[in-house]
Amino acid sequence: MNSSICIVKMEKEHIPGLVEIENACFSHPWTYDGFAAELESTTANFFVALSDGAPVGYIGFHAVLDEGYVDNIAVLPGYRRQGIAKLLMDSAFERCAVLGLSFLSLEVRKSNAAAIALYESYQFKTEGERKNFYSAPREDALIMTVRFKKV
Length: 151
Fold this sequence. Notes:
The protein has helices spanning 15-25, 32-40, 84-99, 113-121, and strands at residues 5-9, 44-51, 54-64, 67-75, 103-109, 125-134, 139-147. The protein has 151 residues and is of the alpha+beta class. It has a single domain (5-147), classed as Gcn5-related N-acetyltransferase (GNAT) (Aminopeptidase, 3-Layer(aba) Sandwich). The protein has a seven-stranded mixed β-sheet, sandwiched between helices.
């Protein structure tokens, strides 16, 4: 685990770094304006992993009523396999508990074994598929969901 990583709520000054992460990780990256709009959204919950003050990963999800939907989780390629995605997931799960969510759901490429293993370690289960959900390259998505027990 990388001890020099800190997780913070997304702020405007993080957006240029998040755009760099998007460009490095996704074939259809989010734009500056897309992230900026999330800062105005009352349903958005975005957390950023910082290394020496620079964004190296992030997770974003929306909470509507008691339902959570992950938009993206990404870590720069040079920072992967250091536990950063776990730190981001932990932050998201803590926020889900504060919000009293019933579940958190996401889509993942069927071929993304590393991400699927991460999600399964958090008790996500495959609950469906979306045919041709991704493009560049075209691929189906698994719909994975973790259900939270109400206390």
